[in-house]
Amino acid sequence: PGHLRLYGRESLSSKHYQSLIARRLRAFRAEISTRVLFAPEKFQQMAGLVAYYNTENWHYLCISHDEEVGRVLRIMSMDNGKYDEPLDAEVPAGNESSFLRAHIDHEELLFYWSEDGEEWQRIGPTLDAGILSDDYVRGWGFTGAFIGMCCQDLSGQRRHADFDWFEYREL
């Protein structure tokens, strides 16, 4: 009650069973935030905030699990089908609840996270938001960039994530 619950499905590269809810990115400058409650038990379980064009072009700030550290933050990117993890190391994510934010300024995308929703820490490098453009994608384009919440469980257990709220603000 009071949350959007997404059950983990297939990866963001899957053309079959996604667990993703997103809205169109309508401005060149925007800030998007959410609060997610997620307790992954395996590295195959992820949930978070995604900047998405299609199955081959996206940037994803997610909460996952590391066998030694426990709950961690990761960034994953797909650039015309080429996968990358731009963080040098996973970031410990503390308790079961995290605040996630994306800041988009034309061709730049920055991710942030917070444990309390007050003090935000930048995570990862400046990412290329241009890969979310109709003019950039290889092969097929459709309706432009989206920003949203998603959950994956590649172990098949359908681990769920609860999203408390989602805020989209044009700057």
Notes on the structure:
A hairpin with a 3-residue loop joins β5 (57-66) and β6 (70-79). This protein has strands at 4-7, 20-24, 29-37, 45-54, 57-66, 70-79, 82-84, 91-92, 97-105, 108-114, 121-128, 146-153, 160-170. The chain contains no helices and 13 strands. Helix content is 0%, strand content 56%. The strands form 2 sheets. Strands 2, 4, 5, 6, 7, 8 and 12 form a 7-stranded antiparallel beta sheet that branches. The N and C termini lie far apart (31 Å). It is mostly beta strands and 171 residues long. The mean pLDDT is 94. The chain is globular, with a radius of gyration of 15 Å.
State the main characteristics.
globular; mainly beta; about 55% strand; six-stranded antiparallel β-sheet; 13 strands; seven-stranded antiparallel β-sheet; about 170 residues
List the helices and strands and how they pair.
Blueprint: E1 4-7, E2 20-24, E3 29-37, E4 45-54, E5 57-66, E6 70-79, E7 82-84, E8 91-92, E9 97-105, E10 108-114, E11 121-128, E12 146-153, E13 160-170
Antiparallel strand pairs: 1-13, 2-12, 3-9, 3-13, 4-5, 4-12, 5-6, 6-7, 6-8, 9-10, 10-11
